[in-house]
């Protein structure tokens, strides 16, 4: 990582060149994480390797433990969080699948853990970019954010801890394999005291270890109480969209960089097509739509719980004949991809035509020519609602 002298753009920052995985690791350090259980899996490995290096050199004051599997990683994370620690870990692909059981437990025990997932396919497996792993966990109860750049990954991890600890919910921050994880970018690194002012020390929860008041914690709940746990979780989940936006606003005031749950670009009465994207494909789409004044962009940063009200507000000025073109880097074993399903659910009472385009599945590159092809197909319309685009 190369440092440069900070300038006036972001006071109390230093600019560094780093890969997305290093940005995630540095974010964990800045958040003063206490406990990091780890298991290497490509393309996530360099996140935990960098954290191990920082712990060994004293740059990061945390307990770092190598585990024997991703299931054990998240089980250890669960235990440490129950005990009151601020916990971070990272995984990818099959590692996230293997931890599926524990993901449910962490969410419904209301543990404010933050984890990074470097998205890769399920099966037939490879190590390139795909979002099927994280999107297949959308019903585990974890909040999900998708970062467009290394800077956004670093900044989102910081915001994720604020959100997780405000609502007692776990948060998954997702970045694309290789397009983000192993690609070097300029990243503004905030000073430690700037992060400390935004993210106070974690307060011990009701399950934190107290030697004077020992307790045992289990997961067995009789039917007459089960609904109470779910109802309280539901109330917290319903607050995510609003609280996440408030935290993003405070982040802008503190750090100078602006984020939202949903970003609308060139969406108004003149718009005929809206590209719906998440993560790094968004950057390519931004460049393409500059040549298409009647095409807008809807970037989903918060994906779960799905920000329905923000999406509806972003699309409120669209003409009735406008079409949405959803770009999917996932395959969920269904006719439509995960983004299309969530958009269709959000727009149930808004009669806008939605088309679904599988593009970039399994790590296949999505160059500007592919985005242009999607725009052409969306403008043409027709009876074929779902398409695979090369």
Give an overview of the whole structure:
Helix 1 (20-30) crosses helix 2, helix 3 (70-82) runs parallel beside helix 5 (100-108) and helix 7 packs across helix 9. Helix content is 39%, strand content 20%. The longest helix has 33 residues, at 223-255. The radius of gyration is 21 Å and the shape is globular. By secondary structure, it is of the alpha/beta class. A 6-stranded mixed sheet has the order 10-12-11-14-15-16, sandwiched between helices. Strands 5-6-8-7-13 form a 5-stranded mixed sheet, with helices on both faces. Strands 1-2-9 form a 3-stranded antiparallel sheet. The model has no long low-confidence stretch (mean pLDDT 94). 48% of the residues are buried. It has 2 domains: 2-255, Thiamin diphosphate (ThDP)-binding fold, Pyr/PP domains (Rossmann fold, 3-Layer(aba) Sandwich), CATH 3.40.50.970; 262-388, 3-Layer(aba) Sandwich (Rossmann fold), CATH 3.40.50.920. The chain is built from 13 helices and 16 strands.
């Amino acid at each position: 990582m190369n440092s440069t002298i900070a300038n006036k753009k972001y006071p109390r920052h230093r600019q560094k060149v780093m890969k997305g995985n290093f940005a995630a690791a540095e974010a964990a350090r800045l958040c003063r994480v206490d406990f990091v259980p780890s298991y290497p899996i490509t393309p996530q490995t360099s996140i935990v390797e960098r954290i191990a290096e920082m712990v060994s050199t004293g740059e990061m004051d945390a307990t770092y433990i190598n585990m024997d599997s991703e299931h054990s990683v998240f089980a250890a994370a669960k235990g440490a969080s129950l005990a009151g620690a601020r916990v971070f870990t990272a995984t990818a692909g099959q590692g996230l699948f293997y931890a599926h059981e524990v993901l449910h437990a962490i969410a419904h025990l209301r543990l404010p853990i933050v984890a990074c997932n470097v998205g890769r396919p399920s099966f037939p497996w490879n190590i390139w970019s795909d979002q099927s792993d994280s999107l297949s966990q959308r019903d585990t109860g974890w909040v999900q954010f998708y970062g467009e750049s290394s800077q956004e990954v670093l900044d989102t991890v910081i915001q994720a801890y604020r959100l997780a600890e405000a609502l007692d919910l776990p948060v998954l921050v997702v970045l694309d394999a290789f397009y983000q994880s192993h690609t070097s970018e300029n990243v503004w690194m905030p000073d430690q005291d700037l992060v400390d002012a935004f993210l106070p020390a974690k307060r011990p929860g009701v399950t934190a270890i107290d030697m004077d008041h020992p307790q045992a914690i289990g997961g067995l709940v009789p039917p007459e109480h089960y609904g109470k746990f779910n109802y309280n979780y539901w109330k917290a989940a319903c607050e995510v969209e609003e609280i996440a936006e408030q935290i993003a606003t405070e982040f802008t005031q503190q750090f100078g960089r602006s984020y939202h749950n949903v970003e609308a670009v060139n969406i108004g009465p003149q718009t005929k097509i809206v590209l719906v994207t998440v993560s790094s494909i968004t950057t390519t789409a931004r460049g393409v739509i500059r040549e298409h004044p009647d095409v807008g962009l809807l970037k989903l940063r918060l994906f779960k719980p799905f920000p329905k009200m923000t999406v509806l507000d972003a699309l409120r000025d669209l003409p009735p004949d406008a079409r949405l073109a959803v770009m999917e880097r996932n395959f969920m074993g269904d006719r439509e991809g995960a983004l299309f399903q969530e958009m269709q659910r959000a727009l149930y009472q808004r009669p806008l035509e939605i088309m679904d385009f599988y593009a970039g599945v399994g790590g296949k590159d999505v160059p500007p020519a592919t985005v242009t092809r999607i725009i052409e197909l969306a403008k043409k319309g027709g009876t074929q609602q779902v398409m695979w685009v090369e």
